[in-house]
Amino acid sequence: MAEIDDIAAALRSSASRLARRLRAEAGHAEYSTAQVAVIRALLEHGSATTSELARIEGVRPQSMSATVASLESMGVVDRRPDPQDARASRVFLTPDGEHAILAGRAAKQSWLIATMSERLTVEEQQILGEAAVLIERMLQPHIAERAS
């Protein structure tokens, strides 16, 4: 059991350090984890109401409202009336916000490619690709979680 404990500790530490490094490369150190989650959801799903974003991220609507308000004050997102519900508004990424996020993604990708090319053999790059597939599988909802 100690071996899996060691592997888990190493993975946790490496994942945290990699996430910090990628945030630094993208220049997104000013975004909180919650803000990044909203930005990612809007990039993947398009505009959404605050309630929809809260459901997507599994947080309370009040918490999501605060996160969206902070992004709005930064000029990353804006709101417009929901055409299906006059009482609601839809949150969307502004062109400047989308540009900044996509530029950040490109910077992260460039850093990863350069670093892997410089420091890893082709075989090690393949192993890392296989590990990424396993990590994605770990991140999928467990069957028991889906039933609830």
Strand order of the largest sheet: 1-3-2
Q: Counting H and I runs of at least 4 residues, what is the number of helices?
A: 7
Round the mean pLDDT to the nearest integer and report it.
90
Radius of gyration: 19 Å
List keywords for this structure.
single chain, 148 residues, mainly alpha, Arc Repressor Mutant, subunit A, 2 domains, three-stranded antiparallel sheet, 11% strand
Provide the fold topology:
Blueprint: H1 2-26, H2 33-45, E1 48-49, H3 50-57, H4 61-73, E2 77-82, E3 85-93, H5 95-119, H6 122-139, H7 143-147
Antiparallel strand pairs: 1-3, 2-3
Description:
The chain has 148 residues and is mainly alpha-helical. The chain folds into two domains: 1-30 and 95-148, no CATH class; 33-93, Arc Repressor Mutant, subunit A. 72% of the residues lie in helices and 11% in strands. It contains seven helices and three strands. The protein has helices at 2-26, 33-45, 50-57, 61-73, 95-119, 122-139, 143-147; strands at 48-49, 77-82, 85-93. Strands 1-3-2 form a three-stranded antiparallel sheet. Strand 2 and strand 3 (85-93) form a beta hairpin. Helix 3 (50-57) packs across helix 4 (61-73). It is globular. The mean pLDDT is 90.
Overview in brief:
By secondary structure, the chain is mainly α. It is built from 7 helices and 3 strands, in the order H-H-E-H-H-E-E-H-H-H.
